[in-house]
## 1
Amino acid sequence: MSITPNATFAALGTTVFTVMSALASEHGAVNLGQGFPDTDGPEDVRAVAARALMEHSNQYPPMRGLPALRQAVADHEARFYGLAVDPDRQVLVTSGATEALTASLMAFLSPGDEAILIEPAYDSYLPIIRNTGATPRFLRLDPPHWRLEEDRLAALITDKTRLLVLNTPHNPVGRVFSDEELAMLARLAATHDFLVVSDEVYEHLVFDGRRHRPLITFPGMAERTLKIASAGKTFSLTGWKVGMVTGAPALIDQVAKVHQFLTFTTPPNLQAAVAYGLGKDDSYYAGLVADMQARRDRLAAGLAALGFDVLPTEGTYFLTCDYSRLSGEDDVTFARRLVAEAGVATIPLSPFVEGDWPHRLIRFCFAKQDVVLDEGVARLRRYFGGA
């Protein structure tokens, strides 16, 4: 029997996150690579999930999500961003943000279309786009400031441009795009009539007094933006895989048509717990930011003292570091050496781009306990010849 696999996915290797985590396990390394916290999220949120599992239905919930969660999402958007959202027509619950992205891209891309990706780009975007038959166009950002430049973006737009994928706060580089940059993007999207799939899973992890502003709040973007959120990131419960999509009814209707044939629905007890969690008071959200910002600063100080050039990190779980003063190796070789010889796992940035990548940059995850961050720095200090 001859078996012909899907060409897009057959060409892929194992994700860099899985590879580096496996190497971390093999070498007993401190894992500062894959982006997940090493402690679970709020106990009260987990308790709601446990009670719902035992006391409420475990059968299929509504395909678009529990009414309580869709209402909680609408209330959240009004509370934090001043958005008026119809919970019945403008909210969709998915099994994680990756499913939300997949359903959104599949809903609006067809062979012959073009989609713009901002590089470095989270690694799931590109294979999803290619599997729709659409052609990706790449907008490369430059370190250390990673600014969106209007002339570069405008040069990529054609009459085939169907959508752009935005990620802010940005993984892997930690950039929070400014109001000026987002207004420019909104203006071009409206002028050229394309959609924006806006990955905003780190919306509550923005530092140094900044505030996240969703693209959907900009003039002309309410009818052409799909805003994607993640309970996993907001509540440090990445294994729950509860995503939420907000958008105009006509957009949500199309995404829901795809969603029903991907996962159809999401565990109802987790949905109930996320609905409760979204209503937590301001002290929870402020505490989350303060805690992660302190961890960012702790790790940044330790790495800078070792000779890494730590790039600005405005949001997310991640620090991007230039290691040029420590090695002339490419980033994959350097990252593999660190995990095998220093016992510290990181993530190279080159897997987040297509084509040549001339920069010597790696990513560290700081969403870890202080003792773990300190041990990682101590191992690197010993490896690079410090005390």
## 2
Amino acid sequence: MSVMSLGMARTGYETKGYFRSPDTVFFTFLFPMLMLGIFAAAFSSRGDISLGPGSPDHVSVAAYYLPGMLAAGILLSGVQNLAVDIAGEKGDGTLKRLGGTPLSPVSYFLGKLGRVFVTAVLQAAMLIVVSKFAFGVALPTSWDAWSTFAWVFVLGTVTSALLGIALSALPRSSRSATAVVVPIVLVLQFISGVYLQFSMLPDWMQNLASVFPLKWIAQGMRSVFLPDGFKALEQHGSWELGWVGVWLVVWLVVGLLVSRLTFRWIRRDA
């Protein structure tokens, strides 16, 4: 079988295994929907979110948090899920056994990437459907908006998956993987405009978040689902879609290089 064929076969195996793990499904697949429901229920009584008194640009709480939850879902599916998963496979000997099969590292990567893409698509679709029918969020109607969503989603998903593979080299054992990875992901969500309005953060925190990809994924998603006037709340008063693409490509390359350089079928200390 070719590298691509093995990668596609591995994608099916990985996807089935993912949905057979209830705790993983809850904390990476359903978690963004749960958080969206919590934010909508907790803050809707305050009214819509607007740019200021009398501003024509205003959205519901659910509509405002939808872009951030979409971005968080991409991060959880890619970075957190893969980093913990691969660290576990190193610890329990799965990778060592796979190293003795015809499966190449490239096919293994393709299988992981395929799984992340499948789960991210399903998760995003469910988030959008729930937002539309449960919370009455008005969805974009223009082709330009949905084409922007498509490239930000695909580029963000691939970048997150590669960074997850790269980050899996950091934990020293499978037992420490969650303790190492989850705090990193949680901090990024708080400083990148997922749970907090990005314009409310201090300048130094916004600058720090701008180094990492989640901020750019969330900003790209906000450009799709929020009125154009809300770009005034961004750090530079613009959606900066060009920079969204540039930073995601940079991190994609970083993730690919680090993944390839650090990946081993057998742990170094084994």
